[in-house]
Amino acid sequence: MTNSKAVALAVGFMILLNLTGHCYSALEFGFYNGKCKFSDVEDIVRRTVSSKFLKDRTIAPALIRMQFHDCFVNGCDASILLDGPNSEKTAPPNLSVRGYNVIDDAKAAVEKVCPEVVSCADIIVMATRDVISFSGGRRYSVQTGRRDGRVSLARNTQTLPPPSTSVSSAIRAFARKGLNPTDMLYLLGNLASFVHTIYSYRHQINI
């Protein structure tokens, strides 16, 4: 993927992070500074994601898609991670979502040095930022301090625009989230391009 595409995708996800949700507290840059003694939480996540990315670059589109599906429903609250017979994870749009192991490993690494402090919601956001950076995009700063959601319902995923949606339907779906057509193009257009590039690469190395 070219740098310009990665940068555009980074811009799109900074827009996505502005979606509000019921599990947001006061977000700030460096929220965990001083809360985990001398440990750098963001660096722990970065190193975990880096080791995964070096083994499998397709975790980049996987994590990007996961964050989009998480944030678009109820804001970035990690509700997509919750298990249950009728959770978001079981909904048709999320059956092909993957990358959960990356988040699990990053969470486990963080818990070793800073137990019960860092939210999974923040880890998803940090991990997605990192894979965009590893893929050639600008490493942007993210605000942290999100709380994890406790409610995860499959029916709530109906707000996600399906791949076959028309432009007008997608515009309406984004408008309901307070986003305009330009925001939509940054997110959906560059996300599709990114996924195509990464999976083309995967196909080439498997030949």
Which short descriptors sum up this protein?
two-stranded antiparallel ribbon, 7 helices, disordered C terminus
Write the layout of secondary structure elements.
Layout (H helix, E strand, L loop, with lengths): L2 H14 L7 E6 L11 H15 L3 H16 L25 H14 L6 H15 L8 E4 L20 H9 L5 H26 L1
Antiparallel strand pairs: 1-2
Helix pairs in contact: 1-7, 2-4, 2-5, 3-5, 3-7, 4-5
Q: Could you characterize the architecture of this molecule?
A:
- With 207 residues, the chain is mainly alpha-helical.
- The chain has seven helices and two strands; from the N terminus they run αβααααβαα.
- It is globular.
Offer a quick outline of the entry.
By secondary structure, the chain is mainly α.
Count, helices? 7
Quantity of strands, as a count: 2
| H/E element order | HEHHHHEHH
Strand order of the largest sheet: 1-2
Question: Taking Cα atoms only, what radius of gyration do you get, to the nearest Å?
Answer: 16 Å
Kindly report how far apart the N and C termini lie: 19 Å
Q: Helicity level, as a percent range? A: 40-55%
Q: Uncertain spans, ≥5 residues at pLDDT below 50?
A: 1-13, 190-207
**Helix-and-strand structural type:** mainly alpha
The largest sheet, given as strand count, sense and whether it forms a barrel, is:
2 strands, antiparallel
Identify the overall geometry. Answer: globular
Task: Give the DSSP E fraction (strand runs of 2 or more residues).
Answer: under 5%
The overall average pLDDT, rounded, is 79
